[in-house]
Amino acid sequence: MKNQDLLQLVEEFGSPLYVYDAAKIESQYKRLTDAFSKVEQFKIHYAVKALSNISILKVLKKLGSGLDTVSIEEVMLGLHAGFDPQEIMYTPNGVSLEEIENVAEMGVQINIDNLSFLEQFGTKHPKTPVCVRINPHVMAGGNANISVGHIDSKFGISIHQLPHLLRIIENTNMNINGIHMHTGSDILDIDVFLYAAEILFETAKHFKNLEFIDFGSGFKVPYKKDDIETNVEEFGKKLTKRFLAFEKEYGKPLTLAFEPGKFLVSEAGFFLAKVNVVKQTTSTVFAGIDSGFNHLIRPMLYGSQHYIENISNPKGKERYYSVVGYICETDTFANNRRISEIHEGDILCFRNAGAYCFSMASNYNSRVKPAEVLWLNGKGHLIRQRESFEDIIRNQVEIDILNETVIA
Ligand SMILES: *Cc1c(COP(=O)(O)O)cnc(C)c1O
């Protein structure tokens, strides 16, 4: 997408604005399927939580993707977008057994990540195929919040509990059709990931009726210039080789599955915000934008570095700015960042705004959520209206307090 296109979209749909480039989602999807083209049964389940707009789900459906979901609401969104239940994987953590049973009843593939529920579910529904989430205790990932495979992690059934797991399956006679791991974000060292995969293969040998092995996600995408990223092509080559060998050993064809969120949509997203004020202080120059962590919380929550460009003045002389929001709490998007000279009214463009940006937005400070636009075949399509004040008060129930005589 060109800067001119983005500026035009802000003109048309207002600021702040999320814009998603369908072509980038498609090229990322292709990159991954190409890397695993030698695997006969390869399946991608897009992780809905990264960006859950129904039109985005439809783009992924069109590409041939399935979905990975973590709540019954995400399952319902997927069904609404036109996915078949069999194309949806449900990988919750800490939800009620009742919710898992309800999702299973819809015909969705469930993935259970604790022994207590596995035993209860298997006893009640021994025929329903179930995937089990294994925690291989391999530390992959650069950030404690998104590393979910290590020893203290609440996710998955510990590999050290395998004997107990197998006993439950034997006692209930339940049908385990898949095994899964998701070690967290940021596969930087491919060999570390392959090591975790090796543990999963070793575990898989204990199950006789597997149809698939799901390796979760963890593809790192570049966030800043010269940032490191997962070498998907090399990774594909190495894991394919190992997978095909395992398949032979296992003695029956298996599906190799992944469930990427960030990899598919992060770079497709642009967040556009207007500079309300340029504030020169004795120590720094603040560029205050018409947004805050209510719309994009990743820099404050994870310390993520989103590349920021002043698309109103891309060729201007670079100066140092602290880009901040309008929330009445410290909400710094970027500290001392070199950006081409900013004037009040300029539009700043945040890159990598596809994953975990809009989907984490809130109404804090009673602000409305931004509109979303899908850029498809050279044209911008509104795929979510900007909220209005009506949305802020919609579910509030007003009671007659002003006419009460006493408030004790
Ligand atoms: C969040 C999540 C993903 C997606 O992770 P990304 O880093 O966005 O690719 C995949 N699987 C599960 C189970 C998840 O919870």
TrEMBL record:
Domain Orn/DAP/Arg decarboxylase 2 N-terminal: 23-266
Domain (Orn/DAP/Arg decarboxylase 2 C-terminal) ranges: 18-354
Gene Ontology MF term list: diaminopimelate decarboxylase activity; pyridoxal phosphate binding
Binding-site residues for substrate, renumbered to this chain: 298, 302, 329, 356
Active site: 328 (proton donor)
Source organism superkingdom: Bacteria
Entry EC number(s): 4.1.1.20
Cofactor names: pyridoxal 5'-phosphate
Annotated binding of pyridoxal 5'-phosphate, by residue: 218, 356
Residue numbers of N6-(pyridoxal phosphate)lysine PTMs: 49
Pfam families hit by this protein: Orn_Arg_deC_N, Orn_DAP_Arg_deC
Pathway(s) of this molecule: Amino-acid biosynthesis; L-lysine biosynthesis via DAP pathway; L-lysine from DL-2,6-diaminopimelate: step 1/1
GO biological process: lysine biosynthetic process via diaminopimelate
InterPro entries assigned to the protein according to its UniProt record, in alphabetical order: Ala_racemase/Decarboxylase_C, DAP_deCOOHase_LysA, De-COase2_C, De-COase2_N, De-COase2_pyr-phos_BS, Orn/DAP/Arg_de-COase, PLP-binding_barrel
Reaction(s) catalysed (UniProt annotation): meso-2,6-diaminopimelate + H(+) = L-lysine + CO2
Keywords: Amino-acid biosynthesis, Decarboxylase, Lyase, Lysine biosynthesis, Pyridoxal phosphate
HAMAP family listed in its UniProt record: LysA
Subunit structure: Homodimer.
Similarity-based family: Belongs to the Orn/Lys/Arg decarboxylase class-II family. LysA subfamily.
Function (record text): Specifically catalyzes the decarboxylation of meso-diaminopimelate (meso-DAP) to L-lysine.
Name of the protein: Diaminopimelate decarboxylase
